[in-house]
Specification:
heterodimer; A: alpha/beta; five-stranded parallel sheet; four-stranded antiparallel sheet; 7 helices; globular; B: alpha/beta
Chain lengths: 230, 256
Amino acid sequence: MIELSDVSKSFTLHNQGGARIEVMSGASLSVGPGECVALTGASGAGKSTLMRLIYGNYLAASGQIIVGGVDVAAARPREILRMRRETLGYVSQFLRVVPRVPTLDVVAEPLLALDRPADEARDRAAHLLAMLNIPKRLWSLSPTTFSGGEQQRVNIARGFAHDYPALLLDEPTASLDIANRDVVLGLIEAAKARGAAIVGIFHDADARERVCDREIDVAAFSPCASGVAA
Amino acid sequence: MTPLLQVRNVSKRYGSRIGCAEVSFDLYPGEVMGIVGESGSGKSTLLNCLAGKLTPDGGQVVFDTRMDGLVDTLTMSEPQRRMLGRTDWAFVHQHARDGLRMGVSAGGNIGERLMAVGERHYGRIRGRAADWLDRVEIDQARIDDRPEAFSGGMQQRLQIARNLVTGPRLAFMDEPTGGLDVSVQARLLDLLRGLVREMGLSALIVTHDLAVVRLLADRLMVMKGGHVVEAGLTDQVLDDPQHAYTQLLVSSVLQV
């Protein structure tokens, strides 16, 4: 479902003397349906960079990134947008929303983008918000003023609204209490059971133990490790 | 899928100065594209060339019309282009007063566009106008008030209602949130996003506000000195800019 082969990434800082920073090279990875792979490595090793490359948020310097048949490294914007709508969900660490939009609509949005009926989308959103213990009185408010943990749960609800065949999860259990952490791990297990391919970053070792099938240390993809000068 | 708008090598010079140079892109139905760049980068010139308000020196602008399929809007007759401007196209000006008739009531401003496409039944026109006031969150009781009596944000929403009442397929927007308070901007952004989705509208949005494009635009084109220096998926261009100018632009934004 998610196949990376020989992916490299560099940044050229044109306004800082044209410095070229190699951050990744030779990254290869294959995640099949129903599988959850954890990315590990020290802070700054490139875990988030790899996730952003898969999502098409960062432009790969070379290599192939195939998600559900689309090569993200070479696809046109509208192909990537379609892949994001239909195939690949992304739970980032931060919630980014249009101000003023009610929480219920923020969560229902991925389904509305797929032209699902509004009632069905809101029902699904309500179900997820209730599961994640967001009090009903908050559903009509914009999540911009919510606490960090509440925003994180809204973000997760949104990421699980549509049954994406593939998911990227960036620290989905960070800043959650035990009960909510358990709900989120349950959602991940359910997604795996229906055949979703998942790549995640989990600093929480117990969570990783419970839902991940494999670990990949991204240090192996550092340019130094593969012999390319940094 | 056929692109709604195919732009090929559109150029415009003002004497020896470049307005915009060799701009090409395709816009597909339902897509929203942002055009960013500093003042004088040619983004408004480009928008005006595409919308038929300026005549480019060269190039092609092919639009997929509802009535006649693909037409080159640069070579079509003036009456045809004016008809397009009232049916399939919408143009939202930065200053609402440029897009509204200030001496005509709010209802009249919306109704005028309906009459321009042949609607004659007064009750129906008034009904549609009231319905649109509602959609852009203006109290229906204000239907007989003139836009002069409206706040800047309300005027802008009225301009949007006037433009969208005939169900256009492509909206040209020139700094639609410029000059508005941030709280009013947020409301307008939310409204525009909703309308774009409900109506399956495509839009070209010229702005210098990167936050606006991040929230509204699927794709982004960055202009400098009349040239497109970078184009791509909005979040990719903003988070991983490739061109020196885009990097400068992105790094110049104040963090809130």
